[in-house]
């Protein structure tokens, strides 16, 4: 049987294709690091921190071992601790809330905006109490949260803002990169992310020197910056290794181009899905830009559509099938789904379609064609 482009599977992400294009550079970098015998917090980390900070438009970048570690470090560095409350979204990955809990603080949920699926600023103010210390917005799917409104609320109530940028590399809000608007940002470099390592890795970004210095100690067992075995706080071993830093430095050179390729694919999806009973990602406002970690639609009969696409060799994913308040780990904490109607709708309808820089126009057309077939259009 002859294989045609119409029968070749379309993955959700295609890490193999991306890796193949830069494999020689990566292999050379890895060998260079291994031969250097300097594998922890060496020159590759220092160089990546400078390069990533420059691209994100921030003063400081502190590398660490994962996106979850970045969140925990950023929260601690901003003074969040036992007895505090942090307002965040229930429609996100669990690292957002577990990082809050690991500081000793308590997370409080505010419902999401139905269009972008990011935390709704109007709901945030309703959740503020005397114990509220910070707001933790997530730039979900690579679409910026409404940082202007969030920062106004934070200023009014003297709160810290920690941005979860795990999915928003190079996304912009009013001309400013996410991760440089709040008091700190937390990035994930998990392999599938827009900027992905060959393993776990993350980073904290900030324009606040005090936060940056605290983050440097927190990722390195709480060690004082100018002392070998004196400690200013209780930190942990949350460092990024030199191999991952070297790999990320190579990939960083391609990030802007890869992001533009994602945006072009998204425009093709927008056009191809027009007129169907699905809701496509909202258009960004002037000065905003989305990084399209995934291209997520809201689809009636979502699960049936996902099954149809799978039967045609097209991958899809649900981010997220359960809101965090419905997770078994948080059972008994007094949350009620009825309090978060927009989140409930998103968990029932959100479906992420294939999205990666190398996604071709033909592949996007094929995905759209199958969705049209499913809805009988």
What does this structure look like?
The chain is of the alpha/beta class and 377 residues long. The chain has 2 domains: 17-111 and 118-252, 3-Layer(aba) Sandwich (Aspartate Aminotransferase, domain 2), CATH 3.40.640.10; 255-374, Aspartate Aminotransferase, domain 1 (Alpha-Beta Complex). 38% of the residues lie in helices and 12% in strands. The protein contains 12 helices and 11 strands. It has helices spanning 15-36, 43-56, 67-77, 95-102, 121-127, 147-157, 209-218, 242-252, 255-272, 302-311, 341-349, 361-374, and strands at residues 60-64, 85-88, 106-109, 132-136, 160-164, 172-173, 176-177, 184-188, 202-206, 295-298, 350-353. A 7-stranded mixed sheet has the order 1-9-8-5-4-2-3, with helices on both faces. Strand 4 (132-136), helix 6 and strand 5 (160-164) form a beta-alpha-beta unit. Helix 1 (15-36) crosses helix 8 (242-252). The chain is globular. The chain starts with 14 loop residues before the first helix and ends with a helix. The model has no long low-confidence stretch (mean pLDDT 96).
């Amino acid at each position: 049987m002859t294989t045609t482009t119409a029968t070749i599977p379309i993955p959700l992400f295609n890490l193999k294709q991306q890796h193949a294009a830069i494999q020689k550079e990566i292999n050379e970098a890895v060998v260079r690091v291994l031969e250097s015998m300097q594998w922890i917090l060496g020159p590759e980390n220092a160089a990546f921190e400078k390069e990533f900070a420059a691209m994100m438009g921030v003063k400081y970048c502190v590398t660490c071992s994962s996106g979850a570690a970045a969140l925990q470090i950023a929260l601690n560095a901003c003074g969040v601790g036992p007895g505090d409350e942090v307002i965040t979204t229930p429609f996100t990955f669990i690292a957002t809330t577990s990082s809050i809990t690991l500081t000793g603080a308590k997370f409080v949920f505010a419902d999401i905006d139905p269009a972008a699926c990011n935390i709704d600023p109007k709901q945030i103010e309703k959740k503020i109490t005397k114990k509220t210390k910070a707001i933790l917005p997530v730039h979900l799917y690579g679409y910026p949260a409404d940082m202007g409104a969030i920062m106004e609320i934070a200023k009014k109530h003297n709160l810290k803002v920690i941005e979860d940028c795990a999915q928003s590399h190079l996304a912009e809000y009013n001309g400013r990169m996410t991760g440089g608007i709040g008091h700190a940002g937390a990035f994930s470099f998990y392999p599938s992310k827009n900027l992905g390592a060959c393993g776990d890795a993350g980073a904290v970004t900030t324009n606040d020197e005090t936060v940056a210095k605290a983050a440097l100690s927190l990722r390195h067992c709480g060690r004082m910056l100018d002392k070998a075995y004196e400690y200013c706080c209780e930190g942990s071993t949350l460092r990024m290794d030199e191999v991952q830093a070297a790999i990320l430095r190579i990939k960083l050179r391609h990030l802007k181009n890869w992001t533009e390729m994602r945006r072009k694919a998204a425009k093709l999806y927008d056009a191809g899905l027009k007129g169907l009973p699905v809701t496509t990602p909202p258009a960004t406002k002037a000065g905003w830009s989305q990084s399209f970690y995934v291209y997520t639609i809201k689809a009636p009969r979502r699960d049936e559509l996902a099954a149809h696409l799978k039967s045609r060799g097209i991958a899809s994913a649900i981010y997220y099938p359960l809101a965090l308040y419905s997770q078994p780990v948080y059972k008994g904490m007094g949350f009620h789904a009825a309090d978060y109607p927009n989140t409930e709708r998103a968990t029932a309808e959100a479906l992420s379609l294939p999205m990666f820089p190398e996604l071709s126009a033909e592949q996007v057309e094929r995905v759209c064609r199958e969705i049209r077939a499913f809805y009988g259009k």
